[in-house]
Write a structure and sequence with these properties.
It contains nine helices and 16 strands. It has 338 residues and is an alpha+beta fold. The strands form four sheets. An eight-stranded mixed β-sheet has the order 5-4-3-12-7-8-9-11. Strands 13-14-15-16 form a four-stranded antiparallel β-sheet. Strands 1-2 form a two-stranded antiparallel ribbon.
């Protein structure tokens, strides 16, 4: 029996209504047949899928009504799910339909893209071993062999301190460095900073009331001893690819990082229409100018009120996809320079 979470149900009903309302547009809802041989750092599995792809972010006003509810995590409340919008490089943990926390991530390279699909996380593993797959990804690493079990303590292990398997070799795991965030860096996996990954894992443990103590977790952090927390039922991870999204009254334009042809004037006009934004006074040239403000490392954002007032270009701003880390100045010890 498939799981139907809060966001899954909302998307099903909302998307059905949007399809009916936009039948006269070239809205990007289509049946696709796509072959993929991608996989995570742990494994690689050929995969062909034919699905109705509605790759819209659950943060869209079409699903939230223009307001994203936010809340702190409630322990013992198991209705949680994870969503990832690949072009935005953002992973969000939700509980009962409310945003708990959003993290910046890195994702798969163009030649090893992350699977745009609904996945299921079945366990959380601290100090995971790595078994290199028989792929050209591993062939470039001369110091490892396919099928070799590389322990958590081994510096050749690229998974870091924690992984969350998503099936078919896809993983959420530790980033090698901070610059992984906002970039296409992995073999089809999602990478997070170690501190963020620990935080996400502990929130999952608390929400699901998993039989893993805080002492167990702290021990796993300090040592290389493997700790496993099973997720039963599995945790839904909805990975989507939405480059044009209206969120809380703001249009966000993200880079088409996998070059899927999503950032077109036609698609942008359809997105505004389906989001209830009156863009009738904007000609195609103006929409093209908005799209041209997007770069590989920056999004372009403008409020829908500014769009309707005819100030879409002048009022909009470009923002980094990943906010620069703020380095805290260390307190100098006595006798040391500040």
């Amino acid at each position: 029996m498939p799981q139907f979470t809060f966001h899954t149900v909302i998307k099903l009903f909302t998307c059905a209504a949007i399809v009916i309302a936009t039948t006269h547009t070239a809205f990007n809802f289509q049946i696709v047949q796509r072959a993929s041989s991608t996989g995570g750092e742990q494994g690689s599995f050929p995969k062909t899928k034919s699905v109705l792809e509605i790759n819209e972010s659950v943060r869209s006003d079409k699903f939230t009504g223009g307001l994203i509810e936010r809340a702190t995590l409630q322990p013992g409340q198991p209705d949680i799910e994870i969503t990832v919008n690949v072009p935005a490089f953002k992973l969000t943990l939700w509980q009962s339909g409310k945003e708990v926390k959003t993290y910046s991530v890195g994702v798969g390279r163009k030649d090893y893209p992350i699977s745009i699909s609904e996945r299921e996380a079945t366990e959380v593993i601290w100090n995971p071993a790595w078994i290199p797959p028989d792929s050209d990804w591993v062939a470039g690493h001369r110091d490892v062999k396919p099928g070799e079990v590389i322990k958590a303590s081994d510096p050749r292990n690229p998974l870091g301190k924690l992984k969350i398997p998503l099936g078919y070799g896809y993983l959420i795991h530790q980033a090698a460095k901070a610059s992984d965030l906002g970039n296409l860096v992995s073999h089809g996996c999602i990478r997070m900073l170690k501190s963020d990954l620990f935080d996400l894992a502990e929130k999952i443990v608390a929400a699901r009331a998993l039989p893993v103590s805080q002492d167990d977790i702290e021990r796993a952090k300090r040592t290389s001893k493997t700790l496993v927390a099973q997720l039963d039922p599995p945790l839904l991870v909805d990975i989507n690819y939405d480059t044009l999204v209206v969120e809380e009254g703001v249009l966000h334009l993200y880079p088409d990082v996998y070059e899927q042809g999503t950032n077109t004037v036609e698609n942008l006009r359809a997105e505004l229409l389906s989001s209830g934004v009156d863009a009738s006074q904007l000609d195609d040239g103006t929409l093209e100018r908005l799209l041209n403000r997007v770069s590989r490392t920056k999004e372009f954002a403008v409020s829908t009120k500014s769009i309707e007032a005819g100030r879409a270009v002048s009022a909009g701003r470009s923002y980094p996809l990943v906010k620069p880390a703020v380095r805290k100045r260390a307190t100098a010890r006595r006798g040391e320079p500040a």
